[in-house]
Amino acid sequence: PPSAPGHASKVALDLRPRARMAAAKRVLVTGAAGQIGYALLPQICRGALLGADTPVIIHMLDIPPAEEALKGVEMELVDSAFPLLQGTLATTDAAAACAGVDVAILVGGFPRKAGMERKEVMGKNVSIYKATASALEAHAAKDCKVVVVANPANTNAWVLSKYAPSIPRENITCLTRLDHNRALGQVAERTGKAVSTVKNVIIWGNHSSTQYPDVNHGTVDGTPIREAVGDDAYLDGDFVTTVQQRGAAIIKARKLSSALSAASSVCDHVRNWVLGTPEGTWVSMGVISDGNSYGVPADLVYSFPVTCKDGAWTIVNGLEIDDASRAKMDTTAKELVEEKAMALECLQ
């Protein structure tokens, strides 16, 4: 019978089977009260990191002077009522922050300040990442996936791999997807094409100004990039330096670092790693070198082109490397060898 005036009708229960949500994943963000953390956390909670059907429990770690700010970030996450967010932990205790985490995004580090020598900065970051490694080793899930964002990202990741031996070395990576995405964006702007049509650029080596952004194997809308751009002088000159120095250019313009694009790139890096790369497409990731790929010395964290499937990355081998590319790839490898030697000095 119809409902009485002033009373709502009863709603029939929908008993049809629904797709079951995945189990919640614990995601650690260090340096969570900082700029990148503030840009990154909402993207994670919206599914950009692990997919729209994977709930998350967010672990946030920062240093004691940032504790109040960290509490404020946690309040905002709660206030945003993200459907995928199943819990938060905000702490200055590394052991608590690392407990049971499935993904660790390591943004926290010691930035270089005016007048500081490179070795001094390296020493401070080696100390931070040795301690972080110990906490992850003792408390994280044993199949935890790690992405290091803080600079020097490649060498910080190498230190982490040395002091967290029970975490598989292939599970410790560093972020060069930001550089990869910058390269995609530059090619898209130059050709007037949508960035989604630009494929298979490569970032080789270190996340530093020696990195080599390589377009020789890439395409725009199915056309080789060199053919689509039609300007080798640009691609071998201004394009390379623009990608290498983009971070500094953004700091000069904003008076702040590139937090938004870094956060977006972290999500791209992890999402492709976990959910896979599209068929025929590769991405750039800083991964541990086995000594058998492109002449890169073993035991460096070096950016390669990789494909991802079933939660694992594989280096794309067999690409033809010309002499000019070889020289640039060797230069950035040499810098990483020097950084590793400096890190070892700091560890003694």
Automatic annotation (TrEMBL):
UniProt entry keywords in alphabetical sequence: NAD, Oxidoreductase, Tricarboxylic acid cycle
EC number of this enzyme: 1.1.1.37
SUPFAM superfamilies xrefs: LDH C-terminal domain-like, NAD(P)-binding Rossmann-fold domains
Active-site residues, Swiss-Prot/TrEMBL: 207 (proton acceptor)
Any GO molecular function: L-malate dehydrogenase (NAD+) activity
Protein name according to UniProt: Malate dehydrogenase
NCBIfam families in the record: MalateDH-SF1 (TIGR01759), MDH_euk_cyt (TIGR01758), PRK05442.1 (NF003916)
Organism: Prasinoderma coloniale
Keyword set includes Oxidoreductase: yes
Binding site for substrate: 112, 118, 151, 182
Domain Lactate/malate dehydrogenase N-terminal: 26-172
Pfam families per the UniProt record, alphabetical: Ldh_1_C (PF02866), Ldh_1_N (PF00056)
A GO biological process held by the record: malate metabolic process
EC class of the enzyme, as a word: oxidoreductase
